[in-house]
């Protein structure tokens, strides 16, 4: 497989760059081990990635546009409960409101950190994560420092992620690292995933939805094969309907970020839809 | 004048909503007073807004794209010194690097806060500003909480701005409030400017450059007529050449945010140019 070869080659280079030797795990052949290592906690289907009938538990019901008034956040929360989505994904200023609205439900609050540019200093990202957690968030979707990665400063990228991972670990929250794949070469995508792994993140995520490109099947497969089954892979950006979502899940995604969650679980195809 | 009528009507409504009575100042007829009140500090031309021959001192030389490696920040700083721009405007993670590079020059470091969505909690925005200032920033371009404004929560909008104004005032830094006009009605633009004024900001700014629209001559004129001459008005987003810049300055802008600063001062027109 061409993709496998790419990952193998790049991973070897990356491990050499990072100076961390050790075994290189590739592909989707670690299901047993993954289950033993808590893949269930990440919601990953351990059955060779058959796409389940109901997609609801894959969906982070998302509104991140800046001009959304608070009432829309209430609606988002109510819909997430009604459709049994995994989480709502919202901007930090609305976390307290959403957590109050969702009290007693199984729907988690996910908030964003360093979003969508990722170009904040690590200490501010960590504080932003702690504050969101204090306000009720139990999942953090942080944006990696893309410029530092492009400039080869892997230490900064890893430290940046680790600060948020630490904040999350204190309360058992999940840290999802957005690598903003549209800006990266394939090699850089693999490096980004490895750095997220080394920094004890729980998920890698394709896109913010605010960059020039969203999730692709290729990127999801590359990311899944890079991280194996010990981490989650979230596909986000431009996922408009059930067909898009199923393609991402088949490629290895175990979480879908979308503003079109209701259309996705209703099985409607196409249409203009809300923007992410 | 239709625009004057709009501002007068809206301002009266806004002051009623905000419950702050007092005199309503309109138009560009306060030059003397403005000079007495420190307009010079804001770089505003007190001569009825004739556009000066050299535009360099109007320019915030800007790179905010997330995939820019650190070397590009060095180049930006060197260009700002060479062309005598007012400031470089960069993401927080590069402030320390830029401040070091610009030591001994007259070029200021401007950094962004809550950028570009503005949907952070006020305490994190204030911390982000303090950290940028500690790292060497002397101007802060913060994004207003657009969603709170759309939802009518003026108290939150004002408190959010005031937290950053306080951080800035401690060291004499400038607080520029981005209202992200593309999302606002004309009435909301005036409300936003009034709230920025009440929260002791130094500038209002049209746009982040990341939203669906950038600076327009209409918005700049509306903002200038709303705030009078005691505040600065920065036009940003989609300003590609000298002709664009001169139109904004004629309309009342006293600062221009652009990645095309070199083209602007070189007088070249049109062309594709760098994106903002």
Structural class of chain A: alpha/beta
The share of residues in extended strands of chain A comes to 5-15%
Q: List low-pLDDT spans of chain A.
A: 21-41, 45-49, 271-276
Number of helices of chain A: 11
Greatest contact pair?
A-B, 37 and 37 residues
CATH topology of chain A: TIM Barrel
- How far the N terminus sits from the C terminus of chain A, by CA atoms, comes to 33 Å
Assembly level: homodimer
Average pLDDT reading of chain A? 87
Number of beta-strand segments of chain A: 8
Rg over C-alpha atoms of chain A, rounded to the nearest angstrom:
17 Å
Query: What order do the strands of the largest sheet of chain A run in, or round the barrel if closed?
Result: 1-2-3-4-5-6-7-8
Number of domains of chain A: 1
The profile of the biggest β sheet of chain A is: 8 strands, parallel, barrel
CATH class designation of chain A: Alpha Beta
Task: Estimate the helix proportion of chain A, in percent.
Answer: 40-55%
What's the overall geometry of chain A?
globular
Explain this structure.
Two copies of one chain form a homodimer. Chain A has 276 residues and is of the alpha/beta class. Chain A has a single domain (3-266), classed as Aldolase class I (TIM Barrel, Alpha-Beta Barrel), CATH 3.20.20.70. Helix content of chain A is 43%, strand content 13%. Chain A contains eleven helices and eight strands. Chain A has an eight-stranded parallel barrel, surrounded by seven helices. The longest helix of chain A has 17 residues, at 2-18. Chain A is globular. The two termini of chain A are 33 Å apart. Chain A binds chain B through residues 64, 66-71, 91-94, 115-121, 123-124, 127-128, 131, 135, 143, 145-148, 150-153, 180, 183, 210-211, and chain B through 64, 66-71, 91-94, 115-121, 123-124, 127-128, 131, 135, 143, 145-148, 150-153, 180, 183, 210-211.
């Amino acid at each position: 497989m061409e993709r496998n070869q790419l990952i193998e080659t790049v991973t070897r280079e990356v491990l050499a760059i990072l100076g961390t030797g050790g075994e290189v795990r590739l592909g989707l052949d670690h299901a047993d081990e993954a289950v033993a290592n808590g893949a269930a906690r990440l919601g990953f289907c351990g059955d060779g990635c058959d796409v389940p009938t109901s997609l609801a538990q894959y969906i982070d019901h998302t509104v991140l546009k800046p001009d959304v008034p608070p009432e829309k956040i209430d609606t988002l929360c109510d819909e997430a409960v009604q459709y049994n989505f995994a989480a709502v994904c919202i901007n930090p200023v609305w976390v307290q409101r959403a957590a109050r609205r969702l009290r007693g439900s199984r729907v988690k609050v996910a908030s964003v950190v360093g979003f969508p540019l990722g170009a904040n200093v690590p200490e501010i990202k960590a504080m932003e994560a702690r504050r969101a957690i204090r306000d009720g968030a139990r999942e953090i979707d942080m944006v990696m420092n893309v410029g530092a990665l492009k400039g080869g400063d892997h230490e900064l990228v890893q430290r940046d992620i680790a600060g948020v991972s630490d904040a999350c670990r204190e309360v058992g929250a999940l840290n999802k690292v957005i690598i903003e794949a549209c800006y990266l070469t394939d090699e850089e995508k693999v490096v980004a995933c490895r750095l997220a792994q080394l920094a004890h993140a729980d998920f890698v995520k394709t896109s913010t939805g605010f960059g020039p490109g969203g999730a692709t099947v290729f990127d999801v497969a590359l990311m899944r094969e890079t991280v194996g089954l010990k981490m989650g892979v979230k596909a986000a950006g431009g996922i408009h309907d059930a067909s898009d979502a199923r393609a991402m899940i088949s490629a290895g995604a175990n979480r879908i970020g979308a503003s079109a969650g209701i259309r996705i679980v209703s099985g409607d195809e196409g249409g203009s839809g809300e923007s992410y």
